[in-house]
Amino acid sequence: MRSHLLNGTNAERYRRTVTEGVERVAAKIAATDRPFTGITADALAPRIESIDLDRPLGDTTAVLDELEEVYLRDAVYFHHPRYLAHLNCPVVIPAVLGEAVLSAVNSSLDTWDQSAGGTLIERKLVDWTTARIGLGPAADGVFTSGGSQSNLQALLLAREEAKTDSLEKLRIFASEVSHFSVKKSAQLLGLGQDAVISIPVDHDKRMRTVALARELERCAQDGLVPMAVVATAGTTDFGSIDPLPEIAEVCEQYGTWMHVDAAYGCGLLASVKYRDRIDGIEHADSVTVDYHKSFFQPVSSSAVLVKDAATLRHATYHAEYLNPRRMVQERIPNQVDKSLQTTRRFDALKLWMTLRTMGADSIGQLFDEVCDLAVRGWELLAADPRYDVVVEPSLSTLVFRYIPAAVTDPAEIDRANLYARKALFASGDAVVAGTKVSGRHYLKFTLLNPETTVDDMAAVLDLIAAHAEQYLGESVVRAS
After folding, report:
1. Each residue's pLDDT tens digit in the chain (480 positions)?
2. What is the full DSSP assignment across 285-306?
């Protein structure tokens, strides 16, 4: 069994095996003509359940053959131009190369003696990102597993900086369309979801700063402690960007920690055309970025950044076997001193490989392309009498609803849109997302693939309309 260990004696076996796997995936990607096969969980589950994990196949070629049946054939492929659903981007090749390297070397980014150069590369990328944001010379940060963890850590720091002995008095303020991880973080931090005050949004789904100021004032009058304001630079549903400069002014007035959840909108940090849309982000006390959303990186690749490096001490715990206190005096750079995680992948390498191969402007240009595509998609929807589109895009998301000409019952229209989304997914021809707006069911295009075209969007809209009309026709038959 030692023949399967990756070491100096098995380097050639490693090369052959990985090459075979890469060739399988490359062939699959080249042959994929739709984003999904439409298979159901009930149909796929028996194949996987029938496999006896205690009887290995013993040969990676046989395992790859099996993998074709249980995974590769029916995977949802984000690289396809008609995958339009969630915040999943196609990935760039240099980052995939980085993934292969980091998996093989298998560094752990908690301590210097497990990662060496990996530690310094991650720190360099943190500095690069904080400079792009404009957080100043005292800034720092650390890579995380994703936006939810980044938001959790940012709010942990805000809680500790609030300097109060009564958790019951702490309040977090976020827009009504902010990410669910804000409430989840409040729960995990012992505050409870009721500690999150939802601030109404305007027509463009941006936080109303007047309402924010009013709630902060009420909080002060009631003897409560405003722990943090979470501004969003790219909401999940609408891609909307809160008015960051105005929110920063309100936070300064009330002495409140300002966190910017830029998990989606962080692509604007590299944008050639639209960087000004996140002006004001430099005033934040902490920022979440998800490179695996708008920097075209494989999952996972995220970071939490802070204006004041000293605040990261709230995540520090010293263990004698790992990072004893003496290492601080010895200036040994242990990333575990900043992180909620201990063992941690070298996910920063993917971004490093991308920047060193393509450069930031190239990433920004790709993100600009999908933002431009969203504008053209909005124009397409606005001109189509079959559809109601909610807001003009700030990033690359479009939320819309099929409106049949002969049906006026909102509940029936809801059912038609839900049916159309499910039928489209079952067909495998395209994948779109769904959400609710004012209690009604809507559909959503999340555009993160520069290969998607206006023609792709038009074709998917026709498919949605056809599925919805099929449902409504069958509904009439059932009613009669």
Report:
1. 788 999 999 999 999 999 999 999 999 999 999 999 999 999 999 999 999 999 999 899 999 999 999 999 999 999 999 999 999 999 999 999 999 999 999 999 999 999 999 999 999 999 999 999 999 999 999 999 999 999 999 999 999 999 887 899 999 999 999 999 999 999 999 999 999 999 999 999 999 999 999 999 999 999 999 999 999 999 999 999 999 999 999 999 999 999 999 999 999 999 999 999 999 999 999 999 999 999 999 999 999 999 999 999 999 999 999 999 999 999 999 999 999 999 999 999 999 999 999 999 999 999 999 999 999 999 999 999 999 999 999 999 999 999 999 888 999 999 999 999 999 999 999 999 999 999 999 999 999 999 999 999 999 999 999 999 999 997 755 665
2. SEEEEEHHHHS-PPS--EEEEE
Q: In angstroms, rounded to a whole number, what is the distance separating the alpha carbons of residues 399 and 401? A: 7
Phi, psi of 46 (to 5 degrees): -60, -35
Burial class from Cβ neighbours inside 10 Å (0-12, 13-18, 19+) for residue 413 reads: buried
For the chain, what is the largest distance between any 2 Cα atoms, rounded to a whole number of angstroms? 82
CA 69 to chain centre: 29
Tell me the two tokens of residue 38: 């439409």
DSSP secondary structure letters along 24-82: HHHHHHHH--SS-----HHHHHHHHHT--TTS----HHHHHHHHHHHTGGG---TTSTT
Q: Where are the beta strands (DSSP E) in 246-372?
A: 257-262, 286-290, 302-306
> Using alpha carbons only, how large is the chain's radius of gyration in Å?
24
Q: By C-alpha distance, which of 86, 262, 279, 299 is closest to 178?
A: 262
Beta strand spans in 111-195 (E): 140-144, 170-175
- Whether 342 contacts 336, CB under 8 Å: yes
Q: How do 170-175 and 387-389 pair as beta strands?
A: unpaired
First to last CA, the chain: 67
